[in-house]
Amino acid sequence: MFSSTSLAALTLLSLAASPVAGLVAAPLEARFVGTKYLFIFGDSYTATGFNPSGNKPSASNPIGNPNLPGSTFSGGWDWPGYLVTSFNTSQTLLYNYAVGGATVDSNLVAPPGNGIKSFVEQTAQWKSDAASKPSYAPWTSENALAGAFFGINDILQSHWRDADTPLSKMVDRYFEQFATLYAAGVRNFFLVTVPPMDKVPQITGQNAQGRSKIMTNVNSWNTQLAARLATFKEKNTGVTAVVIESAGPFNTAIANPKSYGAPDATCLNRNGKSCLWWDNLHPGEAIHKLLAAEIAKAWKDTFF
């Protein structure tokens, strides 16, 4: 856990959290005491540049490597970094396998470049170190939480290539990865839905037909994810599972940009602070902190 001195050094913009909407299993009995382990999988909306072969997460650097806030696509902090600094209640160590450009399965939807590890490959990496080597991450079923945030690249890469988006097959592969985590002992899960992409600067410039097609796939993806997580919880003993609706944080900031340090809802700035958007696809720090607050609220009195 960060000391008051180190937390003071992490001067962050104070943002209000929006209500959590989603599917929650029976709550855990009590907040854990001691070290917690957070395993995260995703794409550029999630990545902090973690190298599993580098320095492991520790009290001095809960993301392990690189130094806080990591190598992100936000101009600074992103939601995983906020979770283990601003919202942690005890020492929380983050093993973040997310990679910019990742899709669920490269064989279903190819990523935008070579060598980008998909959810399938990220899970395999996790299984080879964190799942099988207690000395690497001595987690238990009680003190470990796994989260995933996928779908943006899957939907957009299909769209740019004018190809069908294999939503059902992608969701199948998604939950095969959750099944792998479960088989290794993970019992606490969350997933983040795809945000309202029609409000992202890159997409607002598309024609009405293109925006409509993207949002049809976004809505279908999010609906399928929620339904499958409910089924996953019902079929697997001891699972606590939460759907994190990303639309709330995004819509909150977009509706009130000046409250979050931005002159309007569409400007871009690489500093990640003076606009809501880092570039025309990626949100800056404000939206990330709202999303982190949403996740922390969903696990209030347990992990955060």
Can you offer a commentary on this structure?
The chain has 304 residues and is α/β, with parallel strands linked by helices. It has one domain (4-8, 17-298): Rossmann fold (3-Layer(aba) Sandwich), CATH 3.40.50.1110. The chain is built from nine helices and five strands, in the order H-E-H-E-H-E-H-H-E-H-H-E-H-H. It has helices spanning 4-9, 79-83, 119-128, 152-160, 167-183, 201-204, 208-235, 247-255, 285-298; strands spanning 36-42, 92-96, 144-149, 188-192, 240-244. A five-stranded parallel beta sheet has the order 2-1-3-4-5, sandwiched between helices. Helix 4 runs antiparallel to helix 7 (208-235).
Quick description:
Keywords: Hydrolase, Signal. One of its GO terms (molecular function) is hydrolase activity, acting on ester bonds. This protein is an alpha/beta fold and 304 residues long.
Could you list some keywords that capture this structure?
about 300 residues; 9 helices; SGNH_hydro_sf; five-stranded parallel β-sheet; GDSL_Est/Lipase; Rossmann fold; Carbohydrate esterase family 16 protein; 5 strands; single chain
* Contiguous uncertain segments of 5+ residues: 1-29
Q: Kindly state the mean pLDDT as a whole number?
A: 90
Summed up, the helix count is 9
- Beta percentage is 5-15%
Strand order of the biggest β-sheet: 2-1-3-4-5
- The topology string of helices and strands comes to HEHEHEHHEHHEHH
CATH class identity: Alpha Beta
Helix content: 25-40%
- Profile the largest sheet: 5 strands, parallel
Rg, alpha carbons? 18 Å
Distance between the termini: 12 Å
Derived from helix and strand composition plus strand pairing, the structural class reads alpha/beta
Number of domains: 1
CATH architecture: 3-Layer(aba) Sandwich
Strands, count: 5
The CATH superfamily appears as SGNH hydrolase
- Overall geometry comes to globular
For this structure, the CATH topology is Rossmann fold
